[in-house]
Amino acid sequence: MATTNKRLVILFSGNGGNMENIIHKLHHKEFVVNGNTMKIDIVACVSNNKEAFGIQRAKNLNIDCLIVPHKDFATREDFETTLIEKITPLKPDLIVLAGFMRILSPLFVSVFKSINIHPSLLPKFKGANAIQESFDSSDREVGVSVHWVNEELDSGAMIMQAKRIRDMDEDFEYFSSKIHELEYELYPQAILKALN
Ligand code: GAR
């Protein structure tokens, strides 16, 4: 059966741990999902923060990294218009948000199919402090979510979740490291599911 090429663009804002994991696990590799063979190309990464550590990670992995600082634009609309102009020629099949800490408006979301990872069992703990908030809660069942992006924060249709039962004695550092482990396991699988 023919192989379909799938082109991904990854957006990030900071550390870039999920971005690097996705590149290691998916870039230039072939997968068979429900009988369909697909080959993944990460065609570029985009950072909205010129200080992001992930920029160096992308360079080390020989992935083009565009830097589009949101601070250079007067409005969200101007920022997203430029993002769209820069991403469109890359012809992505999917936009993968990996620690991209900007809300995307309908302008962007109506142009590109986009997915996001969030470090909580959504709909719990939306927003920028999800790991801390789930750590501070009394929930024993914790985890991570990958969902379609819509114009509302951390709110689109669910693609996959991964869960674990924590020990309430765990410290924050251990708790966070287990959340990131779940993310690194889940996101590549969820991307393949979304592409299919
Ligand atoms: C990840 O934990 C990701 O789930 C979270 O930011 C972190 C980025 O880390 N995203 C959100 O909170 C989105 N609302 P990374 O840059 O090392 O991948």
From TrEMBL:
Keyword rRNA-binding set for record: no
Leading EC class: transferase
Keywords of the record: Purine biosynthesis, Transferase
A molecular-function term among this protein's GO annotations: phosphoribosylglycinamide formyltransferase activity
UniProt pathway annotation: Purine metabolism; IMP biosynthesis via de novo pathway; N(2)-formyl-N(1)-(5-phospho-D-ribosyl)glycinamide from N(1)-(5-phospho-D-ribosyl)glycinamide (10-formyl THF route): step 1/1
Protein origin, superkingdom: Bacteria
EC number(s) reported in the record: 2.1.2.2
The keyword Flavoprotein appears for this protein: no
Domain Formyl transferase N-terminal: 6-191
GO biological processes: 'de novo' IMP biosynthetic process
Gene Ontology cellular component terms for the protein in this record: cytosol
Gene3D superfamilies, per the entry: Formyl transferase, N-terminal domain (3.40.50.170)
Name of the protein in its database record: Phosphoribosylglycinamide formyltransferase
Organism: Helicobacter anseris
